[in-house]
Specification:
Layout: H1 2-26, E1 38-40, E2 43-45, H2 49-122
Antiparallel strand pairs: 1-2
Helix pairs in contact: 1-2
Length: about 140
């Protein structure tokens, strides 16, 4: 599936390059000179309509490059966020398991202490030791 998308993308890219080259070459020469004053940021553009079309291609390619970088950065940030959320879930599960183990150990200790107290309570009091013989 991904290979098919790459092939279609290459075909579209080649078609765009061909249209651009034909547009620039087909509108070159004195017959296609710009008749009105045209300026961009104070820079006066002179030449033919083919030259103006070429400038448009350069601006469009720059825009596509910027958009590609923007989307690549967003995709990377999304992947990083997804990995962080996954690690957080894993950490929470581990914390819950450790807390459960701790609670189980506390319950076992309390049960053992209660059992020892019950045994000590039910034992008869110790008999005093007989006095040692005098010599």
């Amino acid at each position: 599936m991904v290979g098919m998308i790459v092939i279609i993308g290459l075909i579209v890219l080649m078609a765009a390059v061909i249209v651009g080259v034909v547009g620039v070459l087909g509108n070159a020469g004195s017959g296609h000179a710009l008749t009105d004053a045209f300026s961009v940021f104070g820079y006066h553009v002179t030449g033919s309509t083919g030259t103006l079309f070429l400038y448009g291609i350069v601006v469009g390619a720059t825009a596509v490059l910027g958009l590609g970088l923007l989307l690549a950065g967003a995709r990377r940030t999304s992947r990083r966020g997804r990995a962080a959320r996954s690690e957080l879930k894993k950490s929470r599960r581990e914390t819950a398991l450790i807390s459960q183990d701790r609670d189980d150990l506390i319950d076992q200790r309390e049960t053992a202490a209660a059992d020892q107290a019950a045994v000590a309570k039910n034992d008869p009091p110790p008999t005093p030791a007989p006095p040692a013989p005098r010599t």
